[in-house]
Write a structure and sequence with these properties.
The chain has 172 residues and is an all-alpha fold. It has helices at residues 2-5, 8-15, 19-68, 94-102, 112-120, 123-130, 134-169. The protein folds into two domains: 8-65; 94-168, C-terminal domain of DFF45/ICAD (DFF-C domain) (Dna Fragmentation Factor Alpha Subunit, Chain: A, Orthogonal Bundle), CATH 1.10.1490. The chain is rod-shaped and about 85 Å long. This is DFFA factor.
């Protein structure tokens, strides 16, 4: 940083080099400083992402534990039949259905696999299993789809950061 701040003419005189060589040296030093700053910022961003991921995992595991605990006073939810008495089969587990029904923003409480299952589920079957109307089930599927897209974008950003970081390490 000190060498960059020195006027090129003074540095050229002190190093007994031409002013163009000194200017090239200062430009190179500035590029190194810029690259280090970018790497520092990338590391900070990655650390924040990892902290958020750990926090989300702990919240999800606590939610899963609380959902897994049997409760004697819990009502049994009938997810097996529709209003016409026809058996409705969903690919969703009872635990996933309980999260969908019991949480204000269930898309934030489910893992990516469950989100995919909710998005792919037939809207009418989902509405029937949750005892909701079709519009509410569609809104839930849209929210799950958006959350899934957001997570995919985060993963792609992380991969991009990793590839940029690896590429910079190989430079001289």
């Amino acid at each position: 940083k000190v060498l960059i701040d020195v006027p090129p003419s003074d540095l050229a005189e002190e190093l007994e080099q031409s002013q163009t060589q000194v200017q090239a040296l200062q430009d190179t030093l500035q590029q190194v400083l810029d690259r280090r700053e970018e790497e520092r910022q990338s590391r900070q961003l990655l650390e924040l992402y990892l902290q958020a991921l750990k926090k989300e995992e702990s919240i999800l595991s606590k939610a899963a534990e609380s959902e897994a605990e049997p409760r004697e006073e819990m009502d049994v939810v009938d997810t097996g039949t529709s209003s016409t008495g026809v058996l409705v089969k969903t690919a969703l587990s009872d635990q996933t259905l309980a999260v969908l029904k019991g949480k204000p923003a269930p898309e934030l409480c489910l893992d990516s696999q469950d989100l995919e299952l909710v998005v792919k589920e037939d809207t009418e079957a989902l509405a029937s299993a949750l005892s909701w109307d079709k519009q509410k089930a569609e809104a839930l599927q849209q929210a799950c789809d958006q959350e899934l897209s957001k997570r995919l974008q985060q993963v792609q950003t992380l991969h991009s950061l990793r590839s940029i970081s690896k590429g910079k390490k190989t430079l001289p």
